[in-house]
Specification:
Blueprint (H helix, E strand, L loop, with lengths): L1 H8 L4 H11 L8 H28 L7 H10 L6 H17 L5 H4 L5 H17 L18 H11 L1
Helix pairs in contact: 3-4, 4-5
């Protein structure tokens, strides 16, 4: 009953699975529609099994977050060791990518502007937006726009310190 609910609630994106199938097959090879559906269904089930085992291991360790180690444990438990190297390689690439990806939190810190300057810039952008007509003909002045309170933000920041 639980498995049926999971199957009804989620599915892998058809276009994504079809794209993976197409990129894997030889250029002139086709896969029948029913074969693609079976593969999609099987893929979903194997993901549920692996995620379930990773979750079980995570709970066993009294952790709240499933990690790569939990996923690798799942692969090994179901004798899928041949994929462990690829998972570790992908993880290493992802971690390297995240080191160089700019943080959204640092975006404003690195701007060199004070909170007051950022607030003034926000006000200016709202004023400019009011001048542009909307697609439905409504006036932007009629829309409710929530503007951040600079003092409230600064108070929140100082309370966190």
């Amino acid at each position: 009953m639980f498995d049926e609910k999971i199957e009804d609630d989620c599915s892998l994106p058809k276009a994504t699975v079809d794209k993976l199938i197409h990129s894997t097959l030889a250029s002139k090879t086709l896969m029948a529609k029913d074969a693609r559906e079976v593969l999609r269904s099987f893929s979903k089930k194997i993901l549920i099994i692996l995620a379930g085992e990773a979750n079980r291991k995570c709970e066993e360790e009294k952790k709240k977050t499933i990690t790569i180690d939990h996923l690798i444990h799942s692969l090994r438990k179901y004798e899928l060791e041949r994929y462990v190297d690829e998972v570790e390689k992908s993880t290493k690439c992802y971690l390297e990518y995240t080191k160089h990806k700019p943080s959204k939190q640092n975006k404003f810190k690195e701007s060199g502007l004070t909170m007051e300057q950022l607030h003034a810039e926000q006000q200016m952008l709202f004023a400019q937006a009011k001048k542009v007509p909307t697609t439905d003909g409504a006036s932007v002045d009629e829309l409710e726009i929530q503007i951040d309170d600079v003092q409230e933000i600064q108070d929140d920041k100082s309370n966190l310190s």
